[in-house]
Amino acid sequence: MQNINEITFDQALKHVGDSVSALIVADENADTYHALVRRGVFTDVVSENGSYTDLVHTLWFHHYDDGRKITDTYNVFVPNMGKFAGKYSKRIKLLVNTIPHLVQMSVIPMKDDGQYLFVLDELDESMKENEEETEDKVNSIQNSMQNKMYVYTMAFDLVSDTTSSIALTEISNEPLNYQMTYSQWRDDISKMIPEGENQRDLFLKQSDPAYLRANYKPGDVQSFDVLMVNLDGIHAWVKLIFSRMKTNSKNDYRFVYMVQNIAEEKKALLERINQYEIEVSTDSLTKVFNHGRIETELRNAIEKFDKDGSPVGLMILDIDHFKSVNDRFGHAVGDTTLSHLAEITRSALADKNAVVGRWGGEEFAVVVYGEEGETLNETAEMIRSTVESAEFDVVKSITCSIGVTEVRTGDDHTSWFNRADHALYAAKTAGRNRVICE
Predict the structure, then answer these.
(1) Strand partners, 241
(2) I need a labelling partner for 64 at 20 to 30 A (CA). Which of 22, 99, 149, 396 fits?
(3) Cβ density class 23-40: b for 16+ within 10 Å, e for less
(4) What are the domain boundaries of the chain?
C-alpha cells in the first residue's frame, strides 16, 4: 500500500478522473458542453457533446419518481439556472428506464466567464437506500402536516430587484441555483397564466412593484387565486400568496412569495410564512442573521439615527488566524468553531439591544443600539475577552479582532461598514486580539 505522503497531485487527479461517473466541461455563452468522462447511468443520460441548455434541463428539471417529465413551459427558468458565480453542489435523482439513480453533483466555475466543470458521481446502493428512507420519512411528515400543498416558495426584495431561496417543492425542498431579478421572474411567471378571463392581468396588477409598495404594510399577507400551468403542463387553480416581511424600516420591501393548492386554513398559512421568513433571514450554519438580513439592519439603524438621533454602533469581528484552524483541523472543525463563536457573541449581548449577523466567512457584524463612545468600546472589549477566555472543542481557544465605529451624520450603510472594517484592519495590523475604535 502506498504511503499517502507519497501520493502526488497528478495521481490524485487521475484517480478522480478514473472513478467519477461523469466529467463535463460546459460553456454557457456558447450553449455547448463536452463530456470528458461518461460512465454508468451517464452513458444514457448525456451525449458526448450537446447543448448546455439541454444539460441543465436534464440535471435540474429531471424526472418524477413515477416517470413523468416536467412540461416544457418551465424551460423559461433554465437559462438562469445555468449561471454560477461560485462553486455549487447538490444531490440530484435521475430516473432512467424507471430506475432512480442518486447522484452527487458539483459545479466548478473555470477561469473564463461562463465556462464550468461538472463533476457527477453516482452514489452507492447503501447511500441511495438511506436517502430514500429519509425522503419517505420527510414525505410522511409533510403529508400529515399538509405542507405538500406548497408547490413553490421564494423570497424577493423590491429595493434591489432580486430573488432568493427559490424552491420548486414538488421536486425538492432544496433552493435552486437561480440567478434572476424580480422583474424578470415576474415576466416569466406571467406567461404561465392564461390570458383569458383577465387572469394574467390580475397577476400583473397585483405583483407589480408599485402595487406591492402601495398596498402592503410590514407583516401584511394577501393572496389571490389564478389558473396557472403546473409542472405536468396542466392549468390548475392555485393561490398566490404575497407577504411583506416585518423589519424595523418602513422603507424595506422584502417579501415572501408562495404558491399553494387552494384549501388551507389561514392559521396554518401564517405559521408557515413566519417560519419561512426566519429561514430566509438566518445563516444556516451559525443561526445568526445572514448577510442580506444584517445588511438590511445596517440600513434600518441609519434610518433610525437620521430620524431621532439615537446612538448606534457597529462592530466588525473577525477570528484571528482562522485559516490555520481549517488547515490544521479541517473545515468541519472550522464550522463548529464559527457556530460556537456566534453563540458566545449572541449570549454576551443578551442584555443589550443588539443583533448579530454573519457577514461572510469568519467575519461577523454586530449592530448595537443605544451605545456610543466609551460604552460602545467597553461592550466590544467585553466580547473580545469573552471569546478569548471561552473553551472551544478541538481547537481549545481562539482570539478575535474587532473594529468599532458609531454611525455619523451623512453615513450610508457602505461608508459606515467601511469605517468599521478599516478599524478591524488596524486591529489586525496592530497584532490582533484587540479592539480598535475609529
Answers:
(1) 223, 258
(2) 22
(3) bbebebeebebebebbeb
(4) 16-144, 147-281, 291-437
Match 406591492 to its residue by C-alpha cell: 212
Distance CA 355, CA 353 (A): 7
Please give the Cα distance from 294 to 33 (Å, whole number): 39
The whole-angstrom separation of Cα 300 and Cα 412 is 10
Cell 413551459 maps to which residue? Answer: 73
Encode pLDDT of 16-62 as tens digits.
Answer: 778 899 999 999 999 999 999 999 889 988 899 999 988 888 887 65
Place of cell 428539471: 61
Q: What Å distances lie between residue 285 and 289, 338, 361, 364, CA to CA? A: 10, 8, 11, 13
φ, ψ of residue 244 to 5 degrees: the values are -80, 130
Contact status, residue 79 vs residue 53, Cβ threshold 8 Å: yes
Could you give the CA distance from residue 105 to residue 194 in angstroms, rounded to a whole number?
A: 36
Q: What does CATH list as the number for 16-144?
A: 3.30.450
Q: Cα separation of 213 and 216, whole Å? A: 6
Q: What are the pLDDT digits (tens) for 300-338?
A: 999 999 999 989 999 999 999 999 999 999 999 999 999
C-alpha–C-alpha distance, residues 103 and 54, integer Å:
18
**CB-count burial class (<10 Å; 0-12, 13-18, 19+) for 128:** middle
Place of cell 440530484: 92
**CA-based end-to-end distance of the chain:** 58
Coil, helix or strand at residue 187:
helix
For residue range 105-156, list pLDDT tens digits in order.
889 998 878 899 999 998 876 544 444 544 444 444 344 434 445 678 888 9
